[in-house]
Amino acid sequence: MHRFLVAGVMMSSILHLVSCGGSGNNATSSPPITPPPVATKPEWMRYFGAHYTLTPSNSGTRDWARGGLRDPGGNRVNYQIAADGLGGYTDTALTEFMNTSLPVIEELLTDGRYTVVTVGGVTTGNAAVFLDSMNTTAGRDTYRLALHNRIDAIRTLAHASGWEQKVYFQFGNEIQNTNGYYGAVCNWLTSNATNNCDLETQFVPTYVERYLAPGVSYLEEKSQALYGRPDAIRMVLGSLVNLTNRETFLNALLNYQVKGEYAPSLAGKFVYELIDTISIHYTIGGSTWRTGLDNFRNTYVPGGVPIGRVHRVWATEEVGANAAEQGYGMAAALHGIARYLSWWQANDMGPDDGHMFVWGADIDSPTAGTCTGCTSVDSDMPVLTGFTGNRALLAQTSNLSTLTASANVEMHEFVVEGVDKRVVILFSSDLLTANITSASLNLSGWSGKSVSIGAYHFATQGPVPILATPIASTAGMVPLDVSLPVTVGGHDAVLLLIEGTN
User: Fold this and answer.
1) Pairwise CA distance, residues 231 & 201, whole Å
2) What is the Cα–Cα distance from 292 to 298, expressed in whole angstroms?
């Protein structure tokens, strides 16, 4: 035990250096998640989800994914159209949706979690069938019925009350991809001449007129019939990889004015008046991550007031297979948690407005020998959730702790609401190598408390305890200085879990 006399107050500091088999902040198990005594902000885990299932085969139960799932049951449950050879069309995925997706959606709705259901149609395998089908009444009716059937099925669930606020319908995945969605549309437009046609004159009109606008009109039709208003059901624009590099793409989509050939009820409206949520992937990796997010808010939600309907920002994929397969799953997840949570709170956005879904949460070592000793997000997340419990994390914007570190070290500090706990997440802001020498923890208000600290370095091998030692404090507002010699770079992250006890 080390004692410090700071500003006339005796403090005790106990540094807990925790290993996987030790006590304290255990990396392999965690105490039950319990509700906070008083909550003024949403619990932090309600912002974060995963993909497909809450019970991954290799990791037990995803208690941390309180935000829900994207595509529950997998991609195969999304609407897929096939020609029957007689001038009609069928929804070949409806049975799979009923058998596989619905039970998972029921589990999500029972616990008040969210889900994103991708509206199928245009894929690399069947783009021509779907886009051609929109020329026919039979094709348009099949598309309409596919959406209405899924809604009717969800509404029959035992815990369906309020489903329209939890189920989000997304129109396409990574639609900027010339080797995927974008390319499939361009190939259809140009009779397979190119997969990279003009964005504003070719891709956007086709995407909106033949896919997005008709789908929105069918959802609005159902919403009006069920709730007496067209916008009760949540609708999401197709996802874009890296918003910072795709602002021109996003603006071209949101500012497109619908002609209404296949959705006459929407003619004359702009896309930002049709959908309420934009979807982004892999945006928070570099140092300019905030630019695209701020520009979107400033343009379409100035002063927090939407100019149309769009106002939500959901990251329907972060972390990703590449990071996870290299062992950086939890480290990359900490980058996302820190950056998104601080940005959402700065813009007063609750879980309805902001979300992040971890792709590859169960990936540790996909091929024997490629990442020996690597761990997954699912296996590592209890280090954090076991400490915070089911509480809000409040981003500190003043009276911050300070670092002695390289200029490119980024620090995010959170108060765990309702208890004397802090969470500090540190990493390289530009993914280049950076050194952290020490942290001066601003623990004002903790006078007379014993302070324990769990310090971890997340890189390719899961949570590695850091040998952190206390050093003498030099300022009254900083009751505890901690030596923290560690080098970070790439997707590395450092996690400090700080607790004060009487």
Assistant:
1) 28
2) 10
**Type and span of the H or E element at 102:** helix 102-110
How far out from the chain centre does Cα 347 lie? 16
Q: For the chain, what percentages of helix, strand and coil (3-state, to nearest 5) are there?
A: 30, 25, 45
The answer to which of 23-32, 123-132, 268-277, 403-412 has the lowest mean pLDDT is 23-32
Angstrom distance (rounded) from CA 433 to CA 428:
7
Give pairs for 71-75: CB < 8 Å, separation 24+. Answer: 71/116, 71/117, 71/118, 72/101, 72/104, 72/105, 72/108, 72/115, 72/117, 73/97, 73/100, 73/101, 73/102, 73/103, 73/104, 74/100, 74/101, 75/118
Q: What DSSP character marks residue 153?
A: H
Report which DSSP code applies to 497. E
Beta strands 393-395 and 409-416, pairing class? antiparallel
Average pLDDT over residues 82-102: 93
Q: CB–CB of 205/252 below 8 Å?
A: no
Share of the chain above pLDDT 70, in %: 89
pLDDT at 481: 82
**From CA 421, how far away is CA 252, in angstroms rounded?**
45
d(CA 479, CA 444): 7
Name residue 354's beta-bridge partners: 313
Buried b (16+ CB within 10 A) or exposed e, 106-135: bbbbeeebbbbbbbbbbbeebbebbbebbe
Angle, nearest 10°, between helix axes 329-346 and 289-300? 30
Ranges of beta strands (E only) in 185-276 are: 234-236, 240-241
Instruction: Yes or no: say if 360 and 320 are a contact pair by the CB < 8 Å rule.
Output: yes
Chain-centre distance for alpha carbon 12: 39
Calculated CA dihedral for residues 398, 401, 403, 409, nearest 10 degrees = -60
What's the pLDDT score for residue 490? 86
Q: How far is Cα 244 from Cα 355, in angstroms, rounded to an integer?
A: 17
| Distance separating alpha carbons of residues 73 and 434, to the nearest angstrom | 41
Q: From CA 39, how far away is CA 391, in angstroms rounded?
A: 7
User: What is the average pLDDT score of the chain?
Assistant: 88
Return the amino acid letter for 142.
T
Determine the Cα–Cα distance for residues 130 and 412; give it in Å rounded to an integer: 46
Computed from CA positions of residues 261, 262, 264, 267, in that sequence, does the dihedral angle turn out positive or negative? Answer: negative
For the record, the structure tokens of 409 come out as 């070290």
Spatial contact of 416 and 388, defined as CB atoms under 8 Å apart:
yes
CA dist 213 → 165, 224, 289, 408 (Å): 21, 16, 30, 44
Question: Could you read off the pLDDT of 382-411 as tens digits, one per residue?
Answer: 999 999 999 999 999 888 888 999 999 999
CB 438 within 8 A of CB 480: no
